Amino acid sequence: MISKEPAIEEIEVVISNDGLGRAAIVQRGDGLIQVYLHWLWNDETRQRLNVSSSMPRSWHGFKYDPLTFYADAIPELSIYGNVEDARAAIASIAAFDAELP
Q1: Three-state secondary structure of 8-27
Q2: pLDDT tens digit string along 86-101?
Q3: Is residue 1 part of a domain?
Q4: Three-class SS of residue 29?
């Protein structure tokens, strides 16, 4: 029987102040930690590119099914042994530098 449980589990999600950036700290099935980054285009960029998107305009309040949301997502290349190191990596990204404790 094939399990429908996700191979990863979200530990923490951080949304950038402008709502366009989303960083998720996840634990893989092998216990190691990785970070997934997702970005949305702002309204000006959507208009300039004449793009109509079904994606939200902000990650705040975004509802999703983790099984499908991460199915084709590619994590950042680094692997972390603990959550604190992953938080530090996210904090080093300009969009998130003021969002973490």
Answers
A1: EEEEEEEECCCCCEEEEEEE
A2: 999 999 998 887 655 5
A3: no
A4: coil
Helical residues (DSSP H) of the chain, grouped into ranges: 43-48, 66-69, 83-91
Q: Is 79 left (phi over 0), alpha (psi -120 to 50) or beta?
A: beta
As given in the structure block, the two tokens for residue 14 are 């951080």
Residues facing residue 90 across a β-bridge: none
What per-residue confidence (pLDDT) applies to 101? Answer: 54
For the chain, the domain total comes to 1
Predicted TM-score (pTM) of this structure = 0.80
Classify residue 30 by burial, with Cβ atoms within 10 Å: 0-12, 13-18, 19+: exposed
DSSP state letter for 77: S
The whole-angstrom separation of Cα 59 and Cα 41 is 11
Cβ atoms within 10 Å of 39's Cβ, excluding its own? 12
- Flag whether 13 is in a domain: yes
Task: Let me know if residue 2 belongs to a domain.
Answer: no
